[in-house]
Amino acid sequence: MRPEPFECPQEPVVLGLSGGRDSVALLRMLALHGVPMQACHVHHGIRGQEADEDAQFCRELCRQFNVTLAEYRVDVPSKAEQSGESLETTARRERRRILVEHALNEGFRAVALAHHADDQAETVLFNLARGSAGLRGMQPRRREGDITWLRPMLGMRRAAITAWLREIGQDWREDATNADLAASVRNRLRLRVLPALSEAMDRDVVPALLRGARLQGEVCAALEAALQVMPLTDPQGRLYLPFLADKPVELCSAALLHYMRRCGVPNLSEACVSEVYSILSADAAKSCCNLPGGFRARRAHKRLVIEAIGSQM
């Protein structure tokens, strides 16, 4: 019996396939539900022969289920050194970039990722500790630019996924860095913080964290629905600033976040939104600012434009 709940995609997807337990389980579930898909595996150039063996495992798995597999290699250590970011952050950024580019090049508009309920709990704690996103988790379905990110297993517990794979005799690849406390913040949250929090509360805290994220998500969804019907943009798709002129700061900030996400700007934080808000006024000291992901926000003619840096828009 498959673990539930599984939110089966209704459209063809590109699957991010690492060869680990979770992405292998997602491939099996997508195949069982007959979802049209391609798989995409990214070799990060970090773990040497182990990473080579991961790629070979993915090839054999996709061959078994007649799934087209695209493989990409990226030198994450070199890119991390150039950017000054951690290996974890760089790998995540490059992986998302490759998934988006591959999906669009192949005519797909959805990418499926294998995050589950325990990942969600880690994300909620991470966002709380970071202080820029509040009690916010991942969403089962989220549109960014031309791509919709799907997380069909977000309601499933890690233990249930593991038990199902063992029941059906499906093996997977283990990434040794997942047990390395020095490798990432998320490892420490998963291996230290969540168990300690559950011990302190004398119960499994994951369901409570998921419930808090769900309730917050419902509030955010209601706000998003309201923003969708507001006349925020002009016919050219630019944010129409006169509409925001007499609105509360909180609503303006929500509208900015909504607009920038719709334009595909990644990794948005409270600081990003505040900086963009500071350029909206006609008498602001500056009329543009840089954003994550190589984007820029620019005020011109009572409009806010989000464009790629170097664009002549």
The Cα radius of gyration reads 21 Å
Structural class category:
alpha/beta
- Under CATH, the topology of the largest domain can be stated as Rossmann fold
Helix content: 40-55%
- The first-level CATH class name of the largest domain: Alpha Beta
Please state roughly what percent of the residues sit in beta strands, choosing from under 5%, 5-15%, 15-25%, 25-35%, 35-45% or over 45%: 5-15%
How many separate helices? 11
When the domains are counted, the total is: 2
User: In the CATH classification, which architecture of the largest domain applies?
Assistant: 3-Layer(aba) Sandwich
| Strand tally | 10
Order of helices and strands: EHEHEHHEHEEHHHEHHHEEE
Shape call: globular
> What ranges have pLDDT less than 50 throughout 5 or more consecutive residues?
none
Question: In this structure, how is the largest beta sheet organized?
Answer: 6 strands, mixed
Termini, distance in Å?
54 Å
The average pLDDT value, as a whole number, equals 90
Q: Biggest sheet: strands side by side, in what order?
A: 3-2-1-4-6-5
Model description:
By secondary structure, the chain is α/β, with parallel strands linked by helices. The protein folds into 2 domains: 13-187, HUPs (Rossmann fold), CATH 3.40.50; 230-308, Chorismate Mutase Domain, subunit A. The protein is built from 11 helices and 10 strands. It has helices at 21-32, 48-64, 76-83, 87-105, 117-130, 158-168, 185-201, 206-228, 241-244, 249-262, 270-277; strands spanning 13-16, 37-43, 68-73, 110-112, 141-144, 147-150, 239-240, 288-291, 295-300, 303-308. The strands form 2 sheets. A 6-stranded mixed beta sheet has the order 3-2-1-4-6-5, with helices on both faces. The chain has a 4-stranded antiparallel beta sheet with strand order 7-10-9-8. α2 (48-64) links the parallel β2 (37-43) and β3. α5 (117-130) crosses α7, α5 crosses α8 and α10 (249-262) packs across α11. It is globular and about 65 Å long. The model has no long low-confidence stretch (mean pLDDT 90).
